[in-house]
Amino acid sequence: MTIVADSFVVPERRGTAGRVSDFFWRHPHVLLAVLLGPPLIWLGIVYLGSLFALLLQSFFSIDEFSGLINYEFTLATYRQLLTEANLDIILRTVLMAALVTLASAVIAFPIAYYAARYARGKWKAVFYLAVMLPLWSSYLVKVYAWKLVLAKEGILTWFFAKLNLLWLLDAWLSLPIVGGNSLSISYTGTFIVFVYVWMPFMILPIQAALERVPATLIEASSDLGGTPAQTFRHVIFPLALPGIVAGSIFTFSLTLGDYIIPQIIGSSRLFIGQAVYAQQGTAGNIPLAAAFTVVPIVIMGAYLWMAKRMGAFDAL
Amino acid sequence: MTTAVLFDNVSRHFGAIRAVDRVNLAIAEGEFFAMLGPSGSGKTTCLRLLAGFEQPTGGHIEIFGETAEGVPPYRRSVNTVFQDYALFPHLSILENVAYGLMVKGIGREERRKAAEDALAMVKLPGYGGRRPGQLSGGQRQRVALARALVNKPKVLLLDEPLGALDLKLREQMQEELKSLQKSLGITFVFVTHDQGEALSMADRLAVFNDGRIQQLGTPEEVYNRPRTRFVADFVGSSNVLSAKLCQALGLNAAFASLRPEAVAIAPPMNGALSLSGTVASHSFLGATNRIVVDVGVDGARIAVASPAARGAPAIGSPVTLSFAAHDLHPMEDA
């Protein structure tokens, strides 16, 4: 018995599949092109194309009498965008998005930290399940469920009553701006639901970032005399920052664009998403709707640029 | 002489696993002490007990006469050089080295000066502006050393610090560490699984196995007089002779150790012991030939380190082994 093959080259595999394999092995770039080409074409046409079409629309204007789009380049629509009423909408949305992002980060961090540092085996699975579960149910159902929770006759009011804390709820609702007749028609309610709905998008990136921080770095900081607070400030937080920024991109941009939550829960004052919805729908003013959608793009661009300048991506 | 580190019956159990089991140990101030053992032998856990990353489940630890239990790592005047160096990737080399001074609230200018001095001490002057990612393994190792020493610790802990370096660099760093320790006078506790490293660098060493100290002594003592079978085998791969073979040589012991280099392939002279056998295998190791001889008792084989210049006898050829009686060391049965 011999264990040595007859010849150095193993006979070629028969058929087209064998020939294709050999061809791709000899020309790896062709394989890369075949794999990446279709999705890139898709991305180019459908994604970037529609984005540019949108941008283009914002430089057209609408004829006030006929309601038809005037296909001439003009900044008139942007002038319209910068009127006081529209600036109010933008400011309100940006402020809400910023607050939602801040609150999400503050709430998400300890959860993500626990999951990354302490949860093992079964508890890790429980963590992922608990974070992801809300994402598997319908967004609309969740929002309407929250309307029931926050309504005047809802669970939360009942809960406050049971704890003899109704005075606290009433005091909060009597505050200007954040208050209202009930939580479900106040900015506070909108805020709570936004934070709830986007929370997984904040927890997961932070958890991923923290998971990549080696435990020895935390030990090293402690070894060198860093108290837990100092270790957090100088080691854990800077290294988790890319994750926090990634999470905040989600929460911030999702809040900027959402039009359903403020419509169902909140005061009747508009957010950017609702303005876009109204302009492209009932008002039929596509150029203004397009100009409105440019706002979040510009804001996110500026936000990312600032994050980069602050060194948020240095530890990547 | 002051006792720097004292372990009094110290145990660290993780559930049913006894990582460290009733260890007694005293390390003197200014000593270069090595903890030697295979992975999982408890040596690293001992180091972590000293650093404060672990707390003992039993016994008592003192560092310079003060109780160590319950003292958090950041309040111990003990610093560690980590196995993976654990440099902060988001900080510059200078900021890394100055980290300990920064968290202690020392002024910017003073800590910059101290960090630059420390970098010069480890022969990396002018590297302060770089990032850890731009440095080689050996350079990172030096930065980790500077980062620990800049705090002027009472005890410096080194966790397999040379493990990731290639042979040449490792030998160079061994010498540098040794001379640095001598000039600074700081107590070094060095964990390694490399017996050569432990023997060449340490003033004294402890050989660990299964969470226990197998033997404690100077490198010469441990190498020449291994107390147990494990030590004989782990430190310098001694020949372990069975009771029957010992009896044949006129020694009454459960086991005995015999260093390969203590054996010569030559007829015995004035009172030396001898064994005869046939050559089973040989391999060339550079300075020496390792010749394994089948002595025909219990299938025992004796390894001989013979100067390479003498050449190696052919496999199967009969040879006579001789060695001095005092090179045969009786051992405990463990």
Automatic annotation (TrEMBL), chain A:
> What is the membrane topology noted in the UniProt record heading this document?
Multi-pass membrane protein
Q: Which Gene3D superfamilies match?
A: MetI-like
Q: Which family does the record assign?
A: Belongs to the binding-protein-dependent transport system permease family. CysTW subfamily.
Describe the location of the ABC transmembrane type-1 domain by residue ranges.
90-307
The record lists the organism as Sinorhizobium kostiense
Q: Provide the coiled-coil residue spans.
A: none
> Where is the protein found, in the record's own terms?
Cell membrane
TM annotation in the entry:
30-56, 89-113, 125-144, 156-178, 184-204, 239-261, 286-306
Q: Which protein are we looking at? A: Spermidine/putrescine transport system permease protein
Q: List UniProt keywords, sorted A-Z.
A: Cell membrane, Membrane, Transmembrane, Transmembrane helix, Transport
Q: Which InterPro entries match?
A: MetI-like, MetI-like_sf
From TrEMBL, chain B:
Q: Which UniProt keywords apply?
A: ATP-binding, Nucleotide-binding, Transport
Q: Name one Pfam family in it.
A: TOBE_2
Any idea what this protein is called?
Answer: Spermidine/putrescine transport system ATP-binding protein
This protein's record includes keyword Nucleotide-binding: yes
Molecular function, one GO term: ATP binding
Alphabetized PROSITE patterns for the sequence = ABC_TRANSPORTER_1 (PS00211), ABC_TRANSPORTER_2 (PS50893)
Q: Hey, what's the signal peptide range on this chain? A: none
What InterPro entries would the database entry show? AAA+_ATPase (IPR003593), ABC_SmlMolc_Importer (IPR050093), ABC_transporter-like_ATP-bd (IPR003439), ABC_transporter-like_CS (IPR017871), Mo/tungstate-bd_C_term_dom (IPR008995), P-loop_NTPase (IPR027417), Transp-assoc_OB_typ2 (IPR013611)
The UniProt record lists the ABC transporter domain at: 5-235
By sequence similarity, the record places it as follows:
Belongs to the ABC transporter superfamily.
- Source domain of life is Bacteria
Organism, as annotated: Sinorhizobium kostiense
